[in-house]
Amino acid sequence: MLLGCSDLLSSLRRTDVADVDACREQIFASPRMITNAKVSGMLRAGKIILTVTLVATMLGPTVIDFNESHVFNPAWPPHARFHTVELLAVGIGMALVGLWLLWRRSFFQVAAAVPVVVWGAFFVPLFVPGTSYEEYPGESARLAGIPMNLFMAVVFIVLTLAGYWMCVRKPSAG
């Protein structure tokens, strides 16, 4: 029925105002059309948020760690630098897979899991004695007393969960 009105709208002359208004009213009053538009907008917004977190997962640690503080730190043994580069490569690879799954296959669960796993790993060292988020105490920027890398990890996890929720939630009626 809606397709018929759409065809009618495109073929009618301006003088057939009553028929045009009747079809327009039917199209725009349709709850299914309104709900589909809400779902589509929410889905797109969710995918965009997940894209931001996946790109941040890929680029953030690489930009921060691919320098003298980590990868090229002369004080670090070569094997420690090897594992740093390896972990960066895993993050980049997982983020690329997540982006592909998100935009080509619509596997929101897997795509959202990538940044949650990568950024969530920032909190594991809290439970390992002898580890630190800083080379020297107090050298890292802080926001609200929280080291910036941990703060940003929380931000990206929360954004990921919000984007995922927007992709999978069912719209409320009305």
Short synopsis of the structure:
This protein is an all-alpha fold. It has six helices and two strands, in the order αααααββα. It has helices spanning 2-11, 17-29, 31-65, 78-105, 108-120, 148-168; strands at residues 142-143, 146-147.
Task: Describe the 3D structure.
The structure is a single chain. The protein is mostly helical and 174 residues long. It is 69% helix and 2% strand. The chain is built from six helices and two strands. It has helices at residues 2-11, 17-29, 31-65, 78-105, 108-120, 148-168, and strands at 142-143, 146-147. A hairpin with a 2-residue loop joins β1 (142-143) and β2 (146-147). α1 (2-11) runs antiparallel to α2 (17-29), α3 (31-65) runs parallel beside α5 (108-120) and α5 packs antiparallel against α6. The two termini are 22 Å apart.
Strand line-up of the largest beta sheet: 1-2
The tally of beta strands, per DSSP, is 2
What is the end-to-end distance? Answer: 22 Å
Q: Mean pLDDT, nearest integer?
A: 79
Number of helices: 6
List low-confidence stretches: 1-6, 27-31
Q: What is the overall silhouette?
A: elongated
Radius of gyration: 25 Å
Query: Helix/strand/pairing class, anyone?
Result: mainly alpha
Largest sheet: 2 strands, antiparallel
How do the helices and strands follow one another from N- to C-terminus?
HHHHHEEH
- Beta-strand share of residues: under 5%
What fraction, in percent, of the residue positions are helical? Answer: 55-70%
